[in-house]
Amino acid sequence: MSDQKSPVNWDALEAKPEFRSLVSRKTRFIVSATIFFMAYYLALPVLVGWFPELMKTQVLGKVNIAYIFALSQFLMAWIIAFMYVRKASAWDKEAAAVIKDHH
């Protein structure tokens, strides 16, 4: 274990408006994406429970709406993951700029 001090003064950095703005935007995106994911994920069992006849409606041969909705959850998760990776890359650049300006 090292007694070296961090080269970044995190207390001063945390007080900067740019840093707070970055954290706020990250939090908004992550909370919004999580709420959307959970609502979309839980919609399938709710729809199957409340509207079973609708969900049994066959669309392509024996494939019904419930199966299509279930498979769409994979696509939705990949899209959210792709969006997060793109946003996180931009946030990393912004964070580096804020830290660099702090020195």
Automatic annotation (TrEMBL):
The keyword Membrane applies. It comes from the Bacteria. The keyword Membrane applies. The chain crosses the membrane at residues 29-52, 64-85. It holds the Pfam family DUF485. InterPro entries: DUF485. Keywords: Membrane, Transmembrane, Transmembrane helix. This is DUF485 domain-containing protein. It comes from Brevifollis gellanilyticus.
